[in-house]
Amino acid sequence: MKKTLVLGASDNPARYSFRAVHQLRQHGHEVVPVGIRKGQVAGLAIHTDRPPEADIDTVTLYVGPQNQPAWYDYILDLNPKRIIFNPGTENAELEKLAQQRGIRTEEACTLVMLSIGNY
């Protein structure tokens, strides 16, 4: 299973990141929720710092491109195998930085990928 860091995690059931954490767990993936507000989602505490994580396979983004620069170093230093840019998070600058480090990038929807077995 793919250890996934959900950046932009929220305890608000109306948010796609909330659904993503739940669906990832239902599919058996280890999830690290990181957000700007403390809370819980799918029984997991939302980290509001930048937790040092090892063996991250995927970072899935739920943070708009205007707020991503503050996270660039953290995301890239995790050295994930891939970064998923969910709808509304597309960012050519971060994609280029990631690709320069050998990190695969995808503009896709985590929820759709999980639902069709393409995660």
Automatic annotation (TrEMBL):
Natural source organism: Hymenobacter algoricola
Gene3D superfamilies: NAD(P)-binding Rossmann-like Domain (3.40.50.720)
Superkingdom of source: Bacteria
Name of the featured protein: CoA-binding protein
SUPFAM superfamilies linked: NAD(P)-binding Rossmann-fold domains
Residue intervals of the CoA-binding domain: 2-114
Annotated InterPro entries: CoA-bd (IPR003781), NAD(P)-bd_dom_sf (IPR036291)
